[in-house]
């Protein structure tokens, strides 16, 4: 009886594994397209580099503090839109768009809309570099 129970269990495991393997084969079909939204060549200093990925959520009618980035920063807006104010000029980045922020430039992000905005920020920098340098508040 124990042998029969063991054989039945093994058969069930093999059958479920075959079913899962069959399902995984169907997943190998392409499900989406790749679309490059930003490409930029960068020169990185020698030494170890670190990649930071930061999620940003901005409520309607809010702004980040004035700051600058000492290393390359790339912003991809997931939801809503964000206006970047960089040294007197503005650029609005909408959901599905990406932008490279300039190095060492005085800037801030603003959500001027009535809707929340969400973005993902990517930075490549030496490990010891700060993500951003906030401007002192007066």
TrEMBL record:
Statement: the UniProt record of this protein carries the keyword Signal: yes
Cupin type-2 domain: residues covered: 55-121
The keyword DNA-binding is annotated on this UniProt entry: no
Superkingdom of source: Bacteria
Keywords for the protein's UniProt record, in alphabetical order: Signal
InterPro entries named in the record: Cupin_2 (IPR013096), RmlC-like_jellyroll (IPR014710), RmlC_Cupin_sf (IPR011051)
Signal sequence region: 1-21
PANTHER family in the record: CUPIN DOMAIN PROTEIN (AFU_ORTHOLOGUE AFUA_3G13620)
Protein name: Cupin domain-containing protein
